[in-house]
Write a structure and sequence with these properties.
CATH topology: CNF1/YfiH-like putative cysteine hydrolases
CATH superfamily: CNF1/YfiH-like putative cysteine hydrolases
Order of helices and strands: EEHEHEEEEEEHHEEHEEHEE
Family: Belongs to the purine nucleoside phosphorylase YfiH/LACC1 family.
Number of strands: 15
Number of helices: 6
Strand order of the largest sheet: 1-2-3-15-7-4
Low-confidence stretches: none
CATH class: Alpha Beta
Keywords: Hydrolase, Metal-binding, Transferase, Zinc
Pfam families: Cu-oxidase_4
Distance between the termini: 26 Å
Helix content: 10-25%
Cofactor: Zn(2+)
Mean pLDDT: 96
Shape: globular
Largest sheet: 6 strands, mixed
InterPro entries: Cu_polyphenol_OxRdtase, Cu_polyphenol_OxRdtase_sf, Cytotoxic_necrot_fac-like_cat
Length: about 270
Amino acid sequence: MEPFQFHDGAGAPCFFLSKWEKEFPHLSVGMSARGGGKNYALHVGDDPDRVIANRKSLAKALNLPFAWWTCGEQVHGTDIREVRAEDRGRGSDSRRTAFADTDGLVTRASGVWLTSFYADCVPLIFYSPDVDVIGIAHAGWRGTVGGIGPKMVRRMVQMGADVGRIRAAIAPSIGGCCYEVDDRVAGALQEVLPSASNEILKSIQPGKWKLDLRLANREMLILEGIRPEHVELTHWCTSCHPEYFFSYRRDKGKTGRMVAWIVKRNRGDG
């Protein structure tokens, strides 16, 4: 069953990871849809006031304080920053205050809304219920071969998590059906994941490959010690569904960004 379910409510169409929200009621976990052309990223040349208004509208729809919104300035790298309560709100209304050169965020704190932006790259979302730690990571092909997923798992273990209890979710992103790469990218993936199956990386002609980054990240997380049944894997492809998603490849770079998120409220707040 598809773990990310679409809901079009309160003027903010989104995909929610309802399974986690039911099991852990203090969490909100999901990803925006492109409904109404709403772009949530400040770095794509959109009017900043309109982007901030979109963010505030989403906050209202989710019944979350906009002041909790926290994000990094993504660079397709593998740096992960621990967000403390006093960092709450960084990047919410200005790129200047976002965590610089950061593609992964992790926190122990409640009331810190971890957000990250996407238009084909893979959103990796994490929760460790034993220590109540949440995380989010942005994995394009560079972040994937750089191991940002396994790095997040190791960071959470350093924070006290039992790897056998860590949950991971792979949210909507471009699928192997649509993501064509060259030998340079295919070779980089094969170096870090030599066991990659034909389902992950498939040669379609000399110098051309189809790459499923979602499956590659799933395999890398399992190799790092996450139990297979603890990895939620979407079937939504951002390129295949223009009615729901922005896609950098499909739209030839001229497109907005969805936002993926995870946040934990104080237990008992609902």
